[in-house]
Structure formats: structure tokens, C-alpha cells
Amino acid sequence: MKKGIILKALSGFYYVEDLQTKELIQCRSRGLFRKKKITPLVGDSVHFTVEPDGNGYVMEILNRKNELVRPPIANVDLALVVFSVKEPDFSPKLLDRFLAVIEANQIEPIIVLTKMDLLTSEEQSLIAPIIQYYREIGYQVIETSSKQQFGLDGIKDLIRNQIVVICGQSGVGKSSLLNSMDQTLNIQVNEISKALGRGKHTTRHVELHKLSDGLIADTPGFSSLDLDQLEPNDLSECFVEFYQRSQDCKFRGCLHVNEPRCAVKEAVEVGEILPTRYENYLQFLTEIKSRKPKY
């Protein structure tokens, strides 16, 4: 039995890198997985066998430390949350949604802002306090421009020896970012559809690419993330500055809405928490509460 990692999943085949020989083996999965409703994911560490004809079979999926549903990938160390500051315009609400889902999966998020070269000086002065706020609550924020080639070296250092997922809405420059760091990736990049104001979906499947001694996944662009896995009490733990203050709330399990002596609401009132972050939290909380129960 050999040990490997799934680098690509496509049309029912799993492309597994043999950890010993570094050879890429085309594998199918055992029927047993289908019966148990288990799907091998890109990023999975697996045991596999190779037949005399060179084809392989995934025999066992080793324990996962985490998994994402959308994109379908496992064992992620780091998430590069890529947002453009222009074309399309920066969306704090969508960023907060991404951060909440990533925090819920206990993956470290790094915020990567693209297309910084497109901002006017006035636009830069408007976005600077928002960027500073995310840094103050503990997030690493990397400002980049693929066109002007700045900010990229910092990302290369981060992904060394890591499994990294790169995510964000369509058209923000994820594929351009990867190609500018390593042109051999040759990932297809489309111009933004100006009529729609959003990018076309250029990435067709999830695949781990080797980059800077790490593995990075370029994933299909999408414009929303489900909060299905979160319960109301979980959400505030995914807003890092809320979680830090929640121990000072009067009530354990405080949802930071109508409860008296809430440390989070007090922090919003005195300007320590960004009002838009709190508003986004309330919207997400309403969404989670109105979700139909699963039976």
C-alpha cells in the first residue's frame, strides 16, 4: 500500500501524488466509499494501490483536520481570502462572510487585496482605515498588484510547506495573482465581463498546484457562501474581536443583540468595533436563525 495526496479530482478520477516517488497516479475510488457516502477530496492524504496497467485505486482516506464544502478540499493550513479594491469594488460584507466560514473551519485566513494600483488617492484614503481595522483585530492584510508586481513575495513566503486555498468572488484576480507568482501555472484568465460587473467563471475544477514549496488551490469563483454549518452561538466566535470581548458580557452565551451589559455592543458604541462589522454580524445571525431546521 502506498501513501499519497490527492492533487486533482476530475470526472470521477483522482490524481494522487506518490509521496515517495513524487509520481502522479490516476486513481479511482473504492466502491465502499460510495456506499458510505464518502467522497475523496483534493488535499486528502490517502493510501492507494497501483495495478499492473498503471491505474490506481484509493483504498483509504486518512483522518482530515478540516474540510471545506465549497470549494471541496481537505486539510487546509491557510486560506488566502482575495478581494479586489476595485473592479469589482471592495465588499466588506462579503469579506466578513468569507472570514466567518473560514474561522468556523479553524483555518487561518490571510486577507489579500488586489488591484491596489487602480485606486485614486481619494479612494485610497477611504479604504485605508478599513484595512487598518482588520489589521488591528489580528488579520494579516497583504496589499498587492499583479500588474505592478508588488506584494507577491510576502505571499510566496507564507505558502511554503502549506496546503493553501485561494478564495474570493469571481473577477477579483485570483488566477492573475497565481500566474504572476509563477507563470508556469498558466491558469486561464478571463477579462471581467463589464456588462455583468463580475468575472466569468474561468476555473473548472479544484486542483492543488505546486508553488514556493507549498501546494495552493485555485478554486472556482463564487459570489456567496452558505452559513449552513453555523449555529447562532457559533457565529460570534467567528468574529474574532467579538469573541475576545464576549467573556466580559453579563450573560454567558450572549448573542450581542438585545442582552443588557453586552461588552460587544458597548465596544460598537464607543467606536472600538467597526459598525459595518456589527451590522454584518446581525444580518448573518438573522440568516442563521431563519434557516429551516434539518431533520
Automatic annotation (TrEMBL):
It is found in: Cytoplasm. Residues 65-225 form the CP-type G domain. Its EC number is 3.6.1.-. Coiled coil: none annotated. Its cofactor is Zn(2+). Keywords: Cytoplasm, GTP-binding, Hydrolase, Metal-binding, Nucleotide-binding, Ribosome biogenesis, RNA-binding, rRNA-binding, Zinc. It holds the Pfam family RsgA_GTPase. Residues 74-223 form the EngC GTPase domain. Binds 1 zinc ion per subunit. GTP binds at residues 114-117, 168-176. Gene3D superfamilies: Nucleic acid-binding proteins, P-loop containing nucleotide triphosphate hydrolases, Probable gtpase engc, domain 3. Zn(2+) binds at residues 249, 254, 256, 262. Belongs to the TRAFAC class YlqF/YawG GTPase family. RsgA subfamily. Monomer. Associates with 30S ribosomal subunit, binds 16S rRNA. One of several proteins that assist in the late maturation steps of the functional core of the 30S ribosomal subunit. Helps release RbfA from mature subunits. May play a role in the assembly of ribosomal proteins into the subunit. Circularly permuted GTPase that catalyzes slow GTP hydrolysis, GTPase activity is stimulated by the 30S ribosomal subunit. This is Small ribosomal subunit biogenesis GTPase RsgA. It comes from Turicibacter faecis.
